[in-house]
Amino acid sequence: MTSNPDTLFFCQSCSVPLVRIEDFGTNRDGSPNEDYCSHWYRDGHFTEPDITVEDMVSRCVSIMHGMHRPDSEIKQTEEAIPFLRRWRTPLV
Questions:
Q1: Closest by alpha carbon to 32, among 11, 54, 53?
Q2: Putative zinc ribbon domain spans which residues (predicted)?
Q3: Nearest to 77 by CA among 10, 23, 21, 18
């Protein structure tokens, strides 16, 4: 993981900012994973490997509504999730 304090990481599954070390998911060896948060990625595996991008968007939107996040922030997250690394379809 880079030590640059200006570097900002976002979960490539749900788009949540990864700020504290405990926010980061973990690799098989226990080291922090720079790509995914601790909710969706642990010990080198996705916690819900079969979740769809549509379900991820729905869950994140629901959580954000519950946190009373601004509609503009919710819309931005909704639009961003399908473009995150986990959801990109490889080119054939």
A1: 11
A2: 10-88
A3: 10
